[in-house]
């Protein structure tokens, strides 16, 4: 697949507004853009950072599934939070999903998102040659 670029969309209206893709495969890398815990216009896990993290990562993993990849292919995650107090809850969700894989990760506290109810946004990068433990 080296050299080929493929893009996929989701039901997120923000992708249409910004002219962006949910995920892009470029050769052996698959990049999933900022993913909030929103399906259509419905926020998942309102007020609950753990549930929002699970929903956001679930949506990101669904994008990877479009390329035949899963959690075992993830090599990097980025987590954006609006509150430092939510770090432990979100870390627990991350470990449940990726503890066996152990991707590199970055966690950043930000001032807010385009939807003020959102507490967590995530990004995921995967590699086609990764092996699942």
Describe the model.
It is a single chain. The protein is α+β, with helices and mostly antiparallel strands and 133 residues long. The chain is built from three helices and eight strands. It has a six-stranded mixed β-sheet, covered by helices on one side. Helix 3 links the parallel strand 6 and strand 7. Helix 2 packs parallel to helix 3 (87-98). The chain starts with a strand and ends in a 6-residue tail after the last strand. The mean pLDDT is 90.
Main attributes?
single chain; 133 residues; alpha+beta; 3 helices; 8 strands
Compact overview of the structure:
The chain has helices spanning 13-18, 49-65, 87-98; strands at 5-8, 23-26, 29-35, 38-39, 42-43, 74-81, 104-109, 120-127. The chain has 133 residues and is α+β, with helices and mostly antiparallel strands.
Please specify the SSE layout and strand pairing.
Layout: E1 5-8, H1 13-18, E2 23-26, E3 29-35, E4 38-39, E5 42-43, H2 49-65, E6 74-81, H3 87-98, E7 104-109, E8 120-127
Parallel strand pairs: 6-7
Antiparallel strand pairs: 1-2, 2-3, 3-8, 4-5, 6-8
Mean pLDDT: 90
Q: Strand content of the residues, in percent?
A: 25-35%
Give the helix proportion (percent range).
Answer: 25-40%
| Spatial strand sequence of the major β-sheet | 1-2-3-8-6-7
Q: Count of DSSP helices?
A: 3
- Would you tell me the structural class of the helices and strands? alpha+beta
Q: Nearest-angstrom radius of gyration?
A: 14 Å
What general form does the structure show? Answer: globular
Low-confidence stretches: none
The biggest beta sheet is recorded as: 6 strands, mixed
The termini sit apart by: 23 Å
State the total count of DSSP E strands.
8
The topology string of helices and strands comes to EHEEEEHEHEE
């Amino acid at each position: 697949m080296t050299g080929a670029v493929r893009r996929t969309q989701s039901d997120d209206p923000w992708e249409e507004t910004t002219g962006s893709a949910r995920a892009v495969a470029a050769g052996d890398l698959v990049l999933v853009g900022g993913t909030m815990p929103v399906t259509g216009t419905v926020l998942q896990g309102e007020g609950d950072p753990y549930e929002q993290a699970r929903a956001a990562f679930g949506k990101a993993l669904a994008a990877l599934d479009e390329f035949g990849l899963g959690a075992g292919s993830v090599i990097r995650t980025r987590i954006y939070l609006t509150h430092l107090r939510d770090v432990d809850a979100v870390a627990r969700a991350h470990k449940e999903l990726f503890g066996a894989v152990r991707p590199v990760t970055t966690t950043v506290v930000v001032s807010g998102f385009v939807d003020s109810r959102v507490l967590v946004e995530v990004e995921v990068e995967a590699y086609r040659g990764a092996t699942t433990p």
